Amino acid sequence: MRYVSTRGRAAPASFSDILLEGLAPDGGLYWPEAYPRLDRADRAELRALYAAEGYPRLACAILSRFADDLPSDDLLALCRRAYAPAKFGSADTVPVTDLGGGLHLAHLSNGPTAAFKDLALQLLAELFEYELERRDQTLTILGATSGDTGSAAEWAMLGKARVSVFMLSPQGRMTPFQRGQMYGLDDPRITNITVPGAFDDCQDLVKAVNADAAFKAAHSLGAVNSINWARLAAQVVYYVASWLRVTRDDDAPAGFCVPTGNFGNIIAAHIARQMGFPIDHIVLATNENNVLAEFFATGRYRVRAAAETVATSSPSMDISKASNFERFVFDLVGRDAAETARLFGAVLPAVGEFTVTPDLLRTARTAYAFSAGTSTHADRVATIRSLYERTGVLIDPHTADGVTVAEHFVTAGHADAAPLVCMETALPIKFADTITEAIGHPAPIPERFAGVLSAAPHTVDLAPGDGPERVKEIISGRGV
């Protein structure tokens, strides 16, 4: 398996080579040169494997198709460490609940930081440690978070002696629990940098620092955001696991509804479908920051400034510039790297938007099975309340965006008899205010998170106007 850049000017590379990188040298994103294809017999084999040996073995079987340069025994050992029952509460790892009416909920948030990001980042940490030891190297992770990636990455990298983490987050845009999980860590290898503005401003700083090739090489910069291909590959596994749980036949279809802001979670469903899994609907859910829903409705992708990015009660989706959307558009335009580079490297920075042709929009909806919807704060509160009263299942506001859109999708008659699986994003303990508004009290906090809200913060705070040079100073130790 070789990987190419969406912008076509970087040389193809192996999984091991791109594991420790973020953006490709040409500013694009790494993507498989071709998707590994699975037929009915392959799917039957995976079903038997999952039933007999569980999630770590399934993860190894899927990931080996993307990381064929890693010894299979080593990869299996990494998967077993990443998905140990002690980290995810049980050997089940990703249970699925039937919500009734054809809807299901995949529980992705039983990991160390109560967010779906743990499922990818626990594995990514093991992969990093393995590859860095093989190469006798160190790695400096530079990332941006809108809420959960930061804490999941930092907790996954704790104790990894060859890894340092610099994580950018938007000032005042995360919940107290999310801030406590991140900023409460007091570790010399972890630095939390707060940025005035929105998540997109954090993401822009990360990209600007990575664009300095000399600095990137000197400090061995890598990524844990979903711009890192290995993280997306790990996310494919839980779509396969969820499909296996809600189907009994190896040709039986299922759909997925995914709340997303950065297109990083939902594109893993796209990958699974391109691999040959019978996924008949990929339903995208946004909050009030509906850039992606607007695209799938109109074909227009219009990036919005930080001032236009609304602070909502599902803050991890308060994003108006979806990094992983470039990967989908690369497929949509027939893997035309020159056209992708024109749209994302030239058109988008210059005018802030582009519009695809009606034929391409039709392809996105039909050949790639995408549709989209939007949810509001009132929708989130009503969905959390009604689902809790009806089933006893309590969900967080981001998951509520997904369930809201999924219910509308089914009600509108778009779904058939195939199950539609809503992908959970986090546990409701992170969002006390919205949960209290919905059901009259916050979700109970498990004992393992008891000290999160009282932890003293450890941050480096950027001032308005601070740019990538200030971030470079902090990384190099000259500006902390």
Q: What is the CATH C level class of the domain at 96-112 and 229-439, in words?
A: Alpha Beta
CATH fold field value of the domain at 96-112 and 229-439: Rossmann fold
> Proportion of β residues?
5-15%
**Looking across the biggest beta sheet, what order are the strands in?**
3-4-14-9-10-13
Largest sheet: 6 strands, mixed
Low-confidence stretches: none
**Distance between the terminal alpha carbons, to the nearest Å?**
41 Å
Q: How many separate helices?
A: 20
Helix content: 40-55%
Mean pLDDT: 94
**Corresponding CATH architecture of the domain at 96-112 and 229-439:** 3-Layer(aba) Sandwich
Rg over CA atoms, rounded to whole Å, is 21 Å
- The number of strands is 15
Describe the structure.
It is a single chain. The chain has 480 residues and is α/β, with parallel strands linked by helices. The protein has a domain at 96-112 and 229-439: Rossmann fold. The chain has 20 helices and 15 strands. It has a six-stranded mixed sheet with strand order 3-4-14-9-10-13, with helices on both faces. Helix 17 crosses helix 19. The mean pLDDT is 94.
